[in-house]
Amino acid sequence: YRVFLKSRPGINGVPVASNFALEKTVWPTLPLENEVLVQTLYLSVDPYMRCRMNEDSGVEYTKAWSLGGTITGGGIGVVCVSSCDGFKRGDIVMTAGFDWPWVNYHNFPGEILKVVTEVPKEQLSMMLGLFGLTGLTGCLGVTEKGNIVPGMNQTVVVSGAAGACGSVAGQVAKIKGCGKLVGICGTETKCKFLTEELGFDAAICYRSQNVADNLSSICPNGVDVYFDNVGGEISNSVITCMNKSACIILCGQISVYNEDKPYPPPLREETESFVKKQRISRDRFLVLNYQNKFGETLEFLQASFKAGKLINKETTVHGLENAGIAFIDMMNGQNIGKQIVKVSELKTP
Ligand code: NDP
């Protein structure tokens, strides 16, 4: 089977599950020379995919999906048959880019695959989350842009805090020695998860609580670091609580991904002048610009996880046929932690 793009939501439209469709495909042939036949185990669904649903992705790091074309993204799989040196049956493999097709089986050119040795078999999905791009994003965003100094008792706020990047960003901010850690997210259950399981000091549900009022009472000394995953009104409220020379880690702006806006979208006029007056930094953060730090960051994430300082959370949807639904669910906040699609079980040979 393959999942393909059946229709586009429109640049200002809300994506729906029927934008994706499933169809039977012919069984792939045996791999040609230098090819590897791979079975997909897990797929990643991510907010950046929203821009790939438009005719033009509008970003430099990824292309739009073509209508009728197979959806591609992050994935991990197991080698069934190899005709390429360096790969053998049973190897776990990934690609470096966002080019894993949403299919059960695929012949990959060996040159774009790498063998995964970093994790045991029961943690493979983590290569798409905590130990993959979202974990690296949460961690590198904080370490490269957060200016967290232990002992300074800085107040850190994370929006989209219960998601894949946000949950890692918050935990890493604590590990790196921040003072108060506050999360903003969409449900009471997520708030509980943040405070009871991830070590956040407080959490605000933006759907049922007033963000600005709650923030000013939770953070009487103002906000020093803001890890921004969402943008829009939530960020507006956070920014107005920020201290002089505070910093915004501009990670994502999911609240406006269904709107035809430039990235990053401009702030409201009065917020923009507040940012200038307070000398708040708001640099765009793109994890792909830090590939030279991926190795050491992965080691840090793995060591912190092993030591029990970092909790991994995933929400798993089962079956290739539900991958489109998993993407829509994630965009609508149904996930806690990283949203994963489990396509097939790894069979022990
Ligand atoms: P998440 O796991 O955080 O899932 C998306 C979450 O966004 C949902 O669970 C939902 O949680 C929240 N959300 C959806 N719509 C809104 C809205 N209108 N207002 C507020 N929150 C909303 O996804 P990721 O962790 O993968 O991505 C988080 C952000 O990080 C995205 O903006 C993404 O584009 C960005 N990103 C940036 C990278 C970079 O290099 N800069 C790399 C990877 C991701 P809730 O219930 O709280 O609403």
UniProtKB/TrEMBL annotation:
InterPro entries: ADH-like_C, ADH_N_2, GroES-like_sf, MDR_fam, NAD(P)-bd_dom_sf. It comes from the Eukaryota. Keywords: Oxidoreductase. One of its GO terms (molecular function) is 15-oxoprostaglandin 13-reductase [NAD(P)+] activity. GO terms for biological process: prostaglandin metabolic process. Residues 4-97 form the Oxidoreductase N-terminal domain. Its EC number is 1.3.1.48. Gene3D superfamilies: Medium-chain alcohol dehydrogenases, catalytic domain, NAD(P)-binding Rossmann-like Domain. It catalyses: 13,14-dihydro-15-oxo-prostaglandin F1alpha + NADP(+) = 15-oxoprostaglandin F1alpha + NADPH + H(+); 13,14-dihydro-15-oxo-prostaglandin E1 + NADP(+) = 15-oxoprostaglandin E1 + NADPH + H(+); 13,14-dihydro-15-oxo-PGF2alpha + NADP(+) = 15-oxoprostaglandin F2alpha + NADPH + H(+). Residues 166-261 form the Alcohol dehydrogenase-like C-terminal domain. The keyword Oxidoreductase applies. Belongs to the NADP-dependent oxidoreductase L4BD family. PANTHER family: PROSTAGLANDIN REDUCTASE, PROSTAGLANDIN REDUCTASE 2. This is 15-oxoprostaglandin 13-reductase. It comes from Ciona intestinalis.
